[in-house]
């Protein structure tokens, strides 16, 4: 989502009259603020993205505050002197989520399953409604035995599908099925 917002901001700056006088570095600095650029990033652009397949964003997650700057100076010395809380604060200043948080299930399957079941139940209700109110309750005359025999006889008389179909299996001289 942050990436989408940054892309929109860059697109807006790129087409505005003020952007004509700005260098690319100035445009980027206005979109990322004072966050530190720490690497190349996923696509070479200074954007922040939490991705498990590419866990090295180009910029830090948060801008440096005085507390974070103090921790960054303390970080340059021995890490054993840092408390667990300070290490976590440094991590959260650089990254939004841990790998466990990125890989955690979102529960999105519940809404998909619910929507699918609702659609299925609506389809069943529509089917039952058509069956009760639209389709005739009595069978059509064409479903009776004698009507089906008459239809078969008509197809034989018309010599329908004489090569591989019905007429090919009928012996017209004996007036019976071929054996």
From TrEMBL:
GO cellular component, one term: mitochondrial inner membrane
Name listed for the protein in its UniProt record: Cytochrome c oxidase subunit 4
Molecular function via GO: oxidoreductase activity
Subcellular location: Mitochondrion inner membrane
SUPFAM superfamilies for this protein: Mitochondrial cytochrome c oxidase subunit IV
Organism, scientific name: Ranatra chinensis
Function: Component of the cytochrome c oxidase, the last enzyme in the mitochondrial electron transport chain which drives oxidative phosphorylation.
Protein family (similarity comment): Belongs to the cytochrome c oxidase IV family.
InterPro entries: Cyt_c_oxidase_su4, Cyt_c_oxidase_su4_fam, Cyt_c_oxidase_su4_sf
Pathway entry: Energy metabolism; oxidative phosphorylation
Membrane topology: Single-pass membrane protein
Keyword annotations of the record: Membrane, Mitochondrion, Mitochondrion inner membrane, Oxidoreductase, Transit peptide, Transmembrane, Transmembrane helix
Quaternary organization: Component of the cytochrome c oxidase (complex IV, CIV), a multisubunit enzyme composed of 14 subunits.
Residue ranges crossing the lipid bilayer per the database entry: 112-134
Signal peptide: none
Pfam families per record: COX4
């Amino acid at each position: 989502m942050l990436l989408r917002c940054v892309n929109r901001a860059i697109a807006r700056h790129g087409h505005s009259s003020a952007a004509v006088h700005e260098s690319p570095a100035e445009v980027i600095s206005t979109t990322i603020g004072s966050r530190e650029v720490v690497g190349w990033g996923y696509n070479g652009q200074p954007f922040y993205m939490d991705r498990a397949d590419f866990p090295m964003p180009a910029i830090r997650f948060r801008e440096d505050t005085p507390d974070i700057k103090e921790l960054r100076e303390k970080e340059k010395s021995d890490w054993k002197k840092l408390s667990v809380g300070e290490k976590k604060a440094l991590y959260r200043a650089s990254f939004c989520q841990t790998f466990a948080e990125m890989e955690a299930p979102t529960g999105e399957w519940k809404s998909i399953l619910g929507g699918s079941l609702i659609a299925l139940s609506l389809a069943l209700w529509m089917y039952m409604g058509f069956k009760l109110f639209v389709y005739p309750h009595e069978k059509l005359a064409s479903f009776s035995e004698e009507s089906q025999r008459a239809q078969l006889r008509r197809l034989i008389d018309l010599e329908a599908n004489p090569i591989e179909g019905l007429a090919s299996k009928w012996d017209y001289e004996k007036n019976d099925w071929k054996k």
